[in-house]
Amino acid sequence: MIRKREERKKERKKGGWLNCLLIWMAKVKQVGLLAAGCQPWNKDVCAASGDRFAYCATLAIYIYQLDQQYNEFKLRSIMSEHKKTITAISWCPDNPDLFASASADNLLIIWNVTEQRAVARLDNTKGVPASVSWCWNSADGVAFVSQRGPLYIWVYGGPDPGVTVHKEAHSFLSDICLFRWHPSKKGKLVFGHTDGSLSIFQPDSQVGVLRVWNVSRSTPLDSFKLKKTGFHALHVLQSPLVKKAPSSCSPSKSQYTSSTSEAVPPPTLSQNRSFSLPPGHAVCCFMDGGVGLYDMGAKKWDFLRDLGHVETIFDCKFKPDDPNLLATASFDGTIKIWDTNTLTAVYTSPGNEGVVYSLSWAPGDLNCIAGATSRNGAFIWDVRKGKIITRFNEHGKNGIFCISWSHKDSKRIATCSGDGFCIIRTIDGKILHKYKHPAAVFGCDWSQNNKDMIATGCEDKNVRVYYLATSSDQPLKVFTGHLAKVFHVRWSPLREGILCSGSDDGTVRIWDYTQDACINVLSGHTAPVRGLMWNTEIPYLLISGSWDYTIRVWDTRDGTCLDTVFDHGADVYGLTCHQSRPFTMASCSRDSTVRLWSLTPLISPLLLNILTDQPWEKIIGNTDTAMVPGCPPLLCGKVSRDIKQELDKLSLDIKAKKLRWFSECFLPPGGSSNLWDLVSVINGQDDSLLPASYSKGVMHMKHLLKFKTSEAQELTIVKMSKFGEGIGAPSKEERLKEAADIHLRLGQIQRYCELMVELGQWERALSVAPGVSMKYWKKLMQRRADQLMDEDNDDAIPYCIAIGDIKKVVTFFTGRGQLLEALLIAQGACEGNIRAPQSSPVNHTTNDVCKELAEWYFQDGCAVLAACCHLAVDNIKLAMSSLIRGNELELAACVGIVLGEVANQSTAYCLELLARKYMTTATRELLADLIRMIPDNYILLAKLCAFYPGSAAEINHLHERCGLPSLEECKPLAEAAVSEGDLFSAVKFHLLSSEPENALQIGLDHVKEQLVKPEWTVDSVQPILDLMSYIRTDRLIMAKLTEVRSELLILCGYIGGLLAIRRQYSSIVPALYEYTSQLLKRREVSVPLKIEQLSVELDAWRVCTQINSNPPSECQRQEFNRLSLSLSAALGLHGADYVTGSNLPSHSDVQLSCFTGHKIQGPVFMLEDGKSAISLNDALMWAKVNPFSPLGTGLRINPF
């Protein structure tokens, strides 16, 4: 924590003239996380409690929780206090917030899951615990056992804490792998030994068959074949998960059966009639690292992650011809390939390779990966064929630490090893060079500018450069200077002759091959450096990862550390980005996760230059210009040059293409291409120009059925699937069947149908029901659908569709969180493919489902995909709202500009927020250009000039550029406005004068006069308060302005609270009211506000808007109605902000919000004291309704 705060203090010292206004926020944004799989080393590695379940990778525990709104499990936290392999976990049965975990370093920890902190630690368990379980007789007692016992009981709280030994549980004949207390017979427990024993729930570890046993029988009740790979661990929930109940379809029917009454079908039974299967969920962990939560009653997965690394991930690389595919190499002996759009594994190597230290993709589209292992040499894996096609064993049994496939000459592969050799060979195994080093070689890298040059990093602390075009085995250059072994080396992709090296001495050194010298030493890491990555567009940008758990971003021009990222929970090994998406970085770590980051905030001035259509020389440059210290970032790589060349060929639609191509280059995966495709569809682009990838994302409603029909036809041609009938219900007595047959022969069809229903033979009943009438058939279909829906059975769907009950099937899907399926059904009905009753508004259903799907994406931290859902039904206003609420301001501005007039209002608001974002960093001229893009920009230009604290000459120059009067002219204009009664203009001109403080008293007096009027509204006072907030900070914080400053802060806080109510910013309303109350208590002011009145208003808001068992009183209702009258004006943006990454747990120090005292989920925003923190989402909402810091200092906050 101390280390992080020091970093933040340094960060704030680096700004320019407005350091005090830049409250700290990380520049690198986490945008994706690939969670680890469940470890296969130990048995007691999964647990569940209530609506949460947990499993552990080797070094971290993953906690998932049910999202009640969407019936979906989401990753809530990752706990990584253990430094050695975690061996067992257990959830407290009496307190769902308490959780125990043990590890191989004889450590046992009690966690508070909600607060994500360790409550108690036992540092010596006298052996490695193989299993842990909470004691039946003590809420703060945990039992644990290792090998053959004894069983220890640790009481960590209460009056008599300590460790005791169980009197009888010791001296077993074989090792213990699991033990459990009996759930009802107190004190009774069962041990599972490594030599085998029978448990109530016993998985077959070879074929992945889950068998459910009844202990009074010798055969299983039921079997589920779940996965081809075997089970590793299993945990059954003692009580079923509390999920959102599906809508009730029909009341229960009477058991009495006559020829016309409705028969009640029997409950579904398993094949063995004597025992029915109880409803239950099982946490299943598989040998391949897969993790799932299986609903045994419904026979379906509630949650499933098919694959995941279970150990340290040493390397990661993007596929050269596809920025959406990322390969990872792990200690677990596998290479996995991930789709970064869906964050799922799509391929995995055969495995059993020992440790895979390094990987390298073949150039271009060859679809092969070279891997380096600890014991099996090197290999080439053909991804499409799914097999190893070549092996290299020249290093013998020595570990190979690095492998590098030449991208200039696809026939050459380099490896370096612990045997001291760097070997260059052809892909068919012919050795070209063997470069002998005096010690182990850990890293090698091909020059990207010279195909015959390669650099190595060695244990002898030196960096060497070899030239392959000669026959000599001696290096051309040897660079010395590191104080410990050199691990990785990387050539700059943009500057010829420049390379960097990372070392165990904690430094990164920059070497110039042409000067034969070290030109910079980057110091800051506190442990060995492992990951290294040059940016492929910005020549000075270098990123490093270290055993100190951090990632650092460097400006190599002067050695400045631009940002430090703390979110990994262990050593950071691999860093990579793709040339066509240069500002999306992937990192991998010993914490078994891969994380995706956006580096775009580091080059924000570039975005503004592109948005405001600045000349090309301010966007694209050469490396010499870009490397000048202090020069704004310039793009120097291949992707930016390619974009410019393509734009130069165009004669039409240049601005739209420019904004699209650059935004796709800058933005991380997650729907930006999908978004632009939808914008093109709305703007009338021909369907034939849509890319093949369009049908895989969120499609416009007019395309949904067309593409899905095509997909179905393709699947039919490619693979004809045969589905079995499933487990049928057992038959009734023969005489009942005989009776039914008699009724049928007598022509009593309805009676026959009812008997068939009673026998559970629905298909027979339905097949003859039209013989009664179509009305009866539909009614019978409806009953069948209702029964299946009550059982949460997908078989209900065809019945609902056949009778046109669209609303029911859409409700069924949305209730289960299957919104995409609901959308497809609704659109099918909308286009007339499903015959629905005329009274059913199917178009309205489609829009509702799209809106719900958008909200699901938004709450999952995917604002871009949420916007796609709104664009799919042409709802441009809500699409722009999603982007703005997700703080994707640059993308929203680009999209709004391309959409044109239909998005004008949202675009203007977005540009205004962008102007606030860059007000403290961009040049004033550039900011003025941005503001000029907004219609009616005069007031915004005035705010910009009022806020600028330069010299008189600089201020007058800015006034002239913005078309405003000079400093000298403003004062008389202000006095004239006062005499004319134009108080808004008076405040504006005073702010623009050399004595801006004169504006405050005039403006505050006006606001106070308004507040005592009975009919005042927020809109009558907010504009002038907002204008006054742009007074220069150096003037506002002067001692002589203490009273007026306090009044301004109080009034901004109060009006901000009302605006937050209007915008439905529920999480910050109490904080704004508390802020205002505290300022009223502490400061001598004269404002028409009373603390008691604030308390009454807040209580009324709470009881009238939030779910509460107590209905509001009449007084509270009247108070809330009065509040609502002051908020009467409509506003386009409603709902809380939720930025990308808000749903991602962090390994870094847990920050508590100074608003709520609770742990902050997602990005953190640090306030100016360096100690107080709030969530970035709360900071964004606060800044939109109150520009001043929550600490009451008078500083503005800028979280945008």
TrEMBL record:
Sorted alphabetically, which Pfam families does this protein's record hold? Answer: TPR_GEMI5 (PF23774), WD40 (PF00400)
Q: Where is the composition biased (Low complexity)?
A: 247-261
- All copies of the Gem-associated protein 5 TPR domain together span 739-901
Check the record and name the PROSITE patterns matching this protein.
WD_REPEATS_1, WD_REPEATS_2, WD_REPEATS_REGION
Q: Which domain of life is it from?
A: Eukaryota
Region (Disordered) residue spans: 243-271
- Which windows of the sequence hold WD repeats? 79-121, 306-348, 479-521, 522-564
* Keywords for the protein's UniProt record, in alphabetical order: Repeat, WD repeat
> InterPro entries this protein is in?
Quinoprotein_ADH-like_sf, TPR_GEMI5, WD40/YVTN_repeat-like_dom_sf, WD40_PAC1, WD40_repeat_CS, WD40_rpt
Disulfide bond as UniProt keyword:
no
Magnesium as a keyword of this entry, yes or no, is: no
The UniProt entry, under SUPFAM superfamilies, shows: Quinoprotein alcohol dehydrogenase-like
This protein is called what? Gem-associated protein 5 TPR domain-containing protein
Organism for this UniProt entry: Monopterus albus (Swamp eel)
